[in-house]
Specification:
Elements (H helix, E strand, L loop, with lengths): L7 H12 L5 H21 L9 E5 L5 E3 H16 L5 E4 L6 E2 L11 E9 L10 E9 L10 H4 L6 E9 L3 E6 L4 E7 L4 E6 L10 E3 L10 H11 L8 E2 L5 H11 L1 E5 L12 H14 L2 E4 L19 E5 H11 L4
Bound molecules: 2,5-anhydro-1,6-di-O-phosphono-D-glucitol (AHG) and manganese (II) ion (3 copies).
């Protein structure tokens, strides 16, 4: 039984003992993410008051126009993790290359790398719609004490040690997993403390929501077109409801609570879809599986894909297990 009013800080300490994280390093790292989340939350909340809305006039490595909050969130997360010398490397959606963190301290033995999407759904910033942050943590492969290499970041998702997201929504929540289920914490902004509000989150086995950018319908593969038509057909518990925010974090969060499927397929204009395997799909897939859901590219389990490059994109089907199974059947011509 979870005691009421447990804070994220208390939860991290309790679980450090329970799961025997050998050095407490992972706990310190999650604590640093908790701190960065509060800083970014503060910036996102006051975005309309000061001049931090809108674009910076730069294009990032993804070919997207960067928003000021993309840049700011990226800086805050990198600064917080770097200053605490808590990781040996960071890769970010907003950075062309990974960052190797060389400690001043010779005894510095950090073994974790972090991959982040600092601000997810950035096209929603200027219109006051929920955005998020996604993070993914791996143990490095190369020897401790040496500079990290690309190999440390190009690990399949099954190697993740922890993953989570922060949703800056009607309330701000931090949701994460260390491979022992998914727990959600809601920020009390008055005192700056996250409380355990959603213990052991689970996707319902099936649901009635499908989330896909239907504006791209003409460009979708036949399997996705057929699945969308299936969702819309009047039969059994259908038609389903269409809900698409355009922030993966928010669409995922709603679907995990209510039951649903999120799809960002490949298309005739984006041969690998849009979402990034390392910063978006792997962490969300780890969370989905830990919450009794499923994530695939239509054919393969996301977590088993061997990444080839840092900013690799992949088609993404994620959510309630039975709905993802059904969509996969359509993709594979079995429906
Ligand atoms: P980001 O803001 O980190 O670049 O991610 C945007 C992603 C994701 O959050 C969202 O689900 C998707 O792009 C929306 O894309 P479309 O506008 O093409 O539907
Ligand atoms: Mn972006
Ligand atoms: Mn994103
Ligand atoms: Mn982003």
């Amino acid at each position: 039984m979870q005691r009421k009013n447990k804070t994220l800080g208390e939860f991290i300490i309790e679980n450090q003992v329970e799961f025997q994280y050998s050095t407490g390093e992972l706990s310190k790292l999650i604590n640093a993410i908790r701190l960065a989340a509060k800083v970014v939350n503060h910036e996102v909340n006051k975005a309309g008051l000061i001049d931090i809305l809108g674009g910076v006039g730069e294009t990032n490595v993804q070919g997207e126009s960067q928003q000021k909050l993309d840049v700011l969130a990226n800086e805050k997360f990198i600064q917080t993790l770097t200053n605490r010398e808590i990781v040996c490397g960071i890769a970010s959606e907003e950075e062309e290359d990974f960052i190797s963190i060389n400690s001043q301290d010779e005894n510095h033995q950090n073994k974790y790398v972090v991959l982040i999407d600092p601000l997810d759904g950035s096209s929603n910033i200027d219109v006051n719609v929920s955005v998020g942050t996604i993070f993914s943590i791996y143990r490095r492969i190369t020897p401790i004490g040496t500079p990290v290499t690309l190999e440390d970041f190009l690990q399949p998702g099954i190697n993740q040690v922890a993953a989570g997201y922060i949703i800056y929504g009607t309330s701000t929540m931090l949701v994460y997993t260390t491979g022992h289920g998914v727990n959600g914490f809601t920020l009390n902004p008055a005192i700056g403390t996250f409380y355990l509000s959603h213990p052991n989150m689970q996707f319902p086995e099936t649901g009635k929501i499908y989330s896909v950018n239907e504006g791209n319908y003409t460009h979708f593969p036949q399997g996705v077109k057929d699945y969308i038509k299936y969702c819309q057909r009047e039969e059994g518990d259908r038609p389903y409801t269409s809900r698409y925010i355009g922030s993966l974090v928010s669409d995922f969060h709603r679907n995990m609570i209510k039951g649903g499927i999120y799809i960002y397929p490949k298309s005739s204009v984006n041969s690998d879809g849009k979402l990034r395997l390392l910063y978006e799909c792997n962490p969300m897939a780890f969370l989905a599986e830990q919450a009794n859901g499923k994530a695939s590219d239509g054919f393969r389990r996301i977590l088993e894909i061997q990444p080839k490059e840092l900013h690799q994109r992949v088609p993404f089907f994620c959510g309630s297990r039975k709905m993802v199974d059904k969509a996969e059947n359509f993709m594979q011509g079995k429906a």
